Amino acid sequence: MGGRDQRVSPVKNFVAGGVGGACLLLAGHPLDTIKVRLQTQPKAPCSQYVMYTGTLDCFRKTLSREGVLGFYKGMGAPLAGVAPMMAISFFGFGLGKQLLQSDSSVPVTSTQMFIAGMFAGVFTTVIVTPGERIKCLLQVQSSSGQVKFSGPVDCAVKLYKEHGIRSVYKGTVLTLIRDVPSTGFYFLTYEYLKNLLTPEGESVDRLSTSRILLAGGTAGIVNWVVALPPDVLKSNFQTAADGRYSGLVDVLRTLLREEGARALYKGLSAVMLRAFPANAACFLGFEVALKCLNWLAPNC
Ligand SMILES: CC(=O)O[C@H](CC(=O)[O-])C[N+](C)(C)C
What we know:
Layout: H1 10-40, H2 55-66, H3 76-100, H4 110-144, H5 152-168, H6 172-197, H7 209-239, H8 248-259, H9 268-296
Helix pairs in contact: 1-3, 1-9, 3-4, 4-5, 4-6, 6-7, 7-8, 7-9
Bound molecules: the ligand CC(=O)O[C@H](CC(=O)[O-])C[N+](C)(C)C.
């Protein structure tokens, strides 16, 4: 597989990855707001009184009542987490490729791309695990009606005070199971499609915006096809009361026994609806930021 002609500096990958993360959030947050509103709307006595009948209804009502800004409520906390996560992810991927590629004139192979992507997945787990634990607990709390945590910082402090750092990092193994293979496929798909979509004789670095969007969006879909089953297990494990599950195999067994295999793809439509535009924007933001950085500092 053809890689970039020259190696990209890890700092540039980090900064451009952060820009990509901010774009991911800007494009994906409206669908996340819709998803959370649908998931947490109060149970109605009959379908006539239901607040939102579906995704489109929720979109229309939010737009007419709150305007476009209504879709961007509560974006501050995720911005503080998603931009650094994607910065670390692109940094880890770039570093992984450099470590695996002994000669920079030899293109990076598909296997090396996949391993470098998995490497990035290991890197991000350090910040993703506590971020997901806090996010999931807050999301479940808003639908359960019991307010234990006033916000992300309060949640982190309470978890730490109650059961120490182990509690903040509850779900680390499941986060690794979710993110290591999926990030491998994420970057492999993007790089593979970029090469496939590059016309004969042209450089992959001059790919059109529409093709970058297509490659990035598809990478997002592939990422979530792989990530969703462990994501369901992770969310259940991270939000369960202490002692409810003896381990991750117990979560899997319980879920399969109680809800069947379909439970492993819960929330599929909302996740997929968000995955394409959010990740298309992420990779476009990354590529544009990288071009700007290369223009500003061509020699580093
Ligand atoms: C599971 C996840 O966070 O996926 C990221 C993209 C998205 O849609 O949020 C990508 N990555 C796993 C590389 C962080």
